[in-house]
Amino acid sequence: xxxxxxxxxxxxxxxxxxxxxxxxxxxxxxxxxxxxxxxxxxxxxxxxxxxxxxxxxxxxxxxxxxxxxxxxxxxxxxxxxxxxxxxxxxxxxxxxxxxxxxxxxxxxxxxxxxxxxxxxxxxxxxxxxxxxxxxxxxxxxxxxxxxxxxxxxxxxxxxxxxxxxxxxxxxxxxxxxxxxxxxxxxxxxxxxxxxxxxxxxxxxxxxxxxxxxxxxxxxxxxxxxxxxxxxxx
Length: 233
Fold this sequence. Notes:
By secondary structure, the chain is of the alpha/beta class.
């Protein structure tokens, strides 16, 4: 069993995640072993053939850091005509999502256990994605850790370049300073335009998770930031 083996890392010095040695439940461990063989995609230094990976030609939406996979599974279930590619580094979350995929018979989900930055750099082609979801990433609230936030100009530009014209990058957070940071960084990206005056209304496609409900109970306002890839002139 290799659930504690860290993903392959390169020389990128500042990362938006810390590899935790979380333990999987027996059910998650079984799902990890069975599910990665059926629904897992190995990281590679070559572009991903999404039609071959999903067994069909369909719009592809990528979720960065899907946590325990609750949102990914629900959105995939409600949108069977779309293919969903989840990227996550933490084995318990991968196991949890794969358990949902197996239990719910979701044929439109695939998983890459690797650093999302490297996946976008090397495996995803320009102008290819129907959407990107980034829901409740680690806000790294301490000022000295802000450099670890995944929403940074270089990464936003990379993600924007992989979106097809008209496709959206949808971010959500319950940490207001991070929401303001997201808004500022995305607004500065020339390839993107805001779909709202500032923060977007909460869209129906993003279901409320237990994590979000807990944040709301604590009085955290959840903000959605939705920017669209500009159409060519």
